[in-house]
Design brief:
alpha/beta; 541 residues; 40% helix
Length: 541
Amino acid sequence: MRNRMAMAAVLAALASGAWAEAPKRGVPSGCDPSVVSEDYWNIWNAEEQARIDADIEANRKADGEFEVDAPAGAVVHVEQMSHDFRFGAHIFNFNQLGSKECNAAYKASYGAGGLFNQATVSFYWIDHEPTPGAFRFGGDYSDTERYWNALTRDEAMRERYWRRPAPGPVIDFLKSKDIAIHGHILVWGNAKPYWIYDWYCPENEKRVVDEIGIPRRSAHLGWEPCGQNWRFGYMGKWVKEWCSAYPKMMKSGLDESAFAAKIPVFTANMRRLFRKRVFDVARAFGDVVDSWDVVNESVQDWVRYRKSQTGLPVWFSSYGLMPGDYPLHALLDAKEAFPASARLAINDYKINESFLEQVRQLCDAGTRIDLVGCQMHIFNTNDCMRLANGATDVNWVGTPQAIRARLDMMAHTGRPIHVSEVTIAAPGVDAKSRDIQAILVRNIYRAWFSHPATTGITWWNTVDGAGVAGEPLVSGLFARDMEKKPAYLALDELINHEWHTTCEVKAEENGIVRFRGFRGRYCLTWKATDGSKRTKMVEVK
């Protein structure tokens, strides 16, 4: 039915001559379309713009029919109050932007009057359990606005808990504004605490590990400013040493089972601690967080084994030693630990056939995967310029057809898709670059929003220069002083205007009210026969 409706809308646009105006659909108000090339507009052409419009009409809207106590012919005002689609952003910079004014502007982008009805909250294991059992869930002085406002920008970005605020106060804020909460992440090899090895691997087993050239995670390696912002256990010296040892291990033909037999205590402890991690978080936040990235970026490990359920006690992971079959066990643990109301996700940046097959295998093995997270980061500002010049090979968003093909592929999992981490940088800081970013954002978001399998889109770093080392300084929707960039205004134009239904309709006999609108919650307002004002809240599904 929806496909027929979409085709009918396309044909109607063609018959009306509207296609001549369709390229304007790709330009946000106030932006200069000439900042991108003719080749770009040949890709995002009139036909594609019309198709996207038709798909949005078919896939994101529905007909509503409701009964009210209004007399026939009475005017009923229809106002959309909330959107079923999740427009999100991470909220990792909560209270960390250096001033009350900047922090207030940041918070105002969430909830009514802002852009985002969902926020991704930091749950990085290494940062929220820095030592065993010492959870940073509730926050302390180092999580307060006063603490961060006393630091310079450079000092703040060197702090260990930069972009890792304690989740408790953040969740309290989000609950007060009725914003959906997405937890990120429970299990990721790149965020496992160093103390797992230091505290829970006996010294005799550490010597076994040393003999085959696997570097120890801490001790002589320490903290260093590399990759993920001074954060030990992310992208520091240890990872460099591990990456050097890893190919040698692969060539040696080392057998995982035989190796695990030499380190039985550590092997058992890893599995126990990873399981405990899931249950610890579930006990603290299982009833208040709506959805979770249970496993993050594990496709690269799945590719090595080509099987989700290997039965191996350990995996030689690209992240170092990991519990065998850790994505499977994490999802099974989460299924056991979290309430049925919490949506469980697997999240990755490798949006390819391997990811599809991994999800299928995990589902077949009895896990509960309610949501598939598909990342899309363009960290290289030159790639954003290449897009503007008509390149089609940038990540998986070079053309509308490429976007549809990748989403179609992942839809074969049978699970809804969350475009979970989005980075689209401006090529520079000048006005032209900002307009380029806004045009790219508008068109890519429209293509994502139009696809029937997509249920949410989450921007990653909303503020310029507020990410981590290695991420572009100009990928925000805000400038560093919280000025709204054209990309912010482009999304505001879409989310709060084009994709927001407000209309007036007349009540039919028996008080029937009919209208078509974007799926979500609505307030109907009318005057009763006695002249009094009446309202009714309804859902368009």
